[in-house]
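Worked Example 4.2. Read the sequence first, then its structure tokens.
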Amino acid sequence: MRRARPDAALFLGSGKADEIAARLAAEQIPLVVFDQELSAIQQRNLQQRWGVSVVDRTELILEIFAQRARSHEGKLQVELARLEHLSARLVRGWSHLERQRGGIGVRGGPGETQLELDRRMLSVRVKRLRAQLEQLRRQRRTRRRARDRKPAFTISIVGYTNAGKSTLFNALTGAGTYAADQLFATLDTLTRRLRLPSGSEVVLSDTVGFVRALPHSLVEAFTATLEETAQADLLLHVVDASAPDRDEQIAQVDRVLEEIGAADVPRILVHNKIDRVGREPEVGRDACGRIARVLVSAVTGAGLEALREAIDQQVESWRRARAAPAEASSDAMPAGGFADPSDSQVPAASRAA
């Protein structure tokens, strides 16, 4: 099907819509899923024309998120995203209700329409969810300030969904978190300590996966979780080396990182699943000689030592950067720790007088 632009009423042309309707009836298909976002009017018209449920891309992603959420915070975030999506798509479905009568025992006077009532109820619930998530965000900030008193190097694993982030997390930390060959297997951030070959310890976090055209409502709802990514000292950007569209996936992840304020966080590109394409472990270095790209297999363990070495290099650079201001401050202070009054900024002639 080729159209210059989607049809405002059906998204498809009427001829194609009728063709699909015949097939739905012949094969008794109960559900149609669009890999595009539909307007509320388009979705309603298609459902009425075909007599089956119609789901667009955003609703499918929201449904998957709802099934995967496990923690209290994750469930709140998903519910907020679903309600905000629904509030923009409420269409009148009660033709027998023009207006509800206002007042008690009063026959005249128009009240609220059913649509207005539903929108008001949704608005109240959305406000409550936002308040609960804001409280959780404040708790996160309190914990972060406590960690900052004794700073540790923090790493977030990011990447396109189903790139093998959780499998890599388990391979590095031995955490045993849930990992599966499915979209958005992990929604809730999980954090563990990781000991490096140098003996240093870092804090490693597994985060939610990204996807092409990720609904803005989801990015907004998961702000509290994604803040941890923006605050990290290093990102491990995991890429599925076996995916034919991996370059596009990398670009999509970069767009989301920019949207959440993490575009400038240092990162290492980790090409995972090399066992599926017959590649050997390999490293690529930047202009400073540091490892910037690593080819690994989280399943077989190939290349993981090189990845740990790359993380060690980043930790060492981070420590040098933190030590530099302290050294500069100590060099500026006299050996005794106090300034000599005779060395004050008073002209020599004034002192002589």
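Now turn to a second chain, presented in exactly the same format:
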Amino acid sequence: MRADPSLIHSQSEVRILAAIRDLLGVAATLDEVAAAALRLCAAMMQADASSLLLRDYDGGYRKFSFVTTEGARDVEHLRLDFGEGIVGAVVEKGLPQVVPDVSRDPRFSERVDTVGGLKAGSVACVPFRVKEGIVGTLEVAKKDAGSLGDKDLELLTALAGSVAVIAENTRVLSEIKDLHDKLEQANRVKAQFLATTSHELRTPINIIIGNLDLLLGGFLGELTARQKDSLRTALRNSGEALNLISSLLDLSRIEAGQFVIRVEEFRLDDVWKELELLFRIGLSGKEVELSWEAKEGLPPLKTDKIKVKEILSNIIFNAVKYTQQGKIEVTAFPLGAGETVQIEVRDTGVGIPKEYLPVIFEPFRQVEGSSPSVHGGVGLGLSIARRLVDLLHGQIVVESELGRGSTFRITLPTKYSA
């Protein structure tokens, strides 16, 4: 026994929206949204079949069909000539159409108006609108002629408006996901390229640094003061190039999510001894005093030594680059009951303007006027240090005054916990 159509038509648009949202709330793809929407339309309109025509990227249309006796049909792809069939007229004029008896309407097209192979007696078709305009049609069909009228058209129009919003949102989300997947793939390729290139460049630069060191040490003969100055400049620039390559390699690993925490016990004194020579190479030719002090009671750390080393390397090299004379003081001391340590890097360099402090930890950021040709680098060191500190559940803050220098404070847990 068929339900009284008047009861269906009396439902408010709010209830229609609620029904659609309940039914489509779990739909994930456009195909699932279309199938769910067509089932709902057929049920609410007491129709024998329903179809959704959606414009595709190539200018054609995708046709989703549902027949009550068979369920959802495979998606068809078709070209719609201008004004062809009932659906063509609706797309062309943007007006809903009801055809009580398709046998008496010359516009009816077997090719585009037939819904899932059903031999229809009457059809109702409304435009499918999104913000960009009409992108297709929503159509229902019944076997018996004269079984669809203007009241059915009103209900179908309300349904189409609600379904269009959900379908468009689903389409946009699908496009965003596709774009996200493509960007992730591009990032992986970029990271692999950077890692490979950086690795290939490190070896020859290390050889250059080793040979320069031999020359400066007098192992290959005595040098004049002028020759030594030139070699110190070459040694300093080689060290900066090596640091830049290491930074690119670190950035590629971070962006590719390739960093793994390897916990071991060590002392900060040992880390300093491993890094000090590189810092002094960077200070070659500068009148800068470099000092290290580990305060009494400084406990050993049980965390990732390599990452702590990279953090200190990037922060102190930043001080080395921007300090032409004066001093760089590095101090480490325990905080509280020894559960955390703080490493303070204080320099008498050029300083950082107050307005730049919020952005200095962003990648490829450099203070205006700090040309790479003058100071070296491309603005990666602080960004990498910040990301590594975050990985180790620490904090990093900076205080600076233009022309007076900067102080970076790094706070790390003495014991890493995931």
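Notes for the reader: The chain has eleven helices and 14 strands. The chain has a mean pLDDT of 79.
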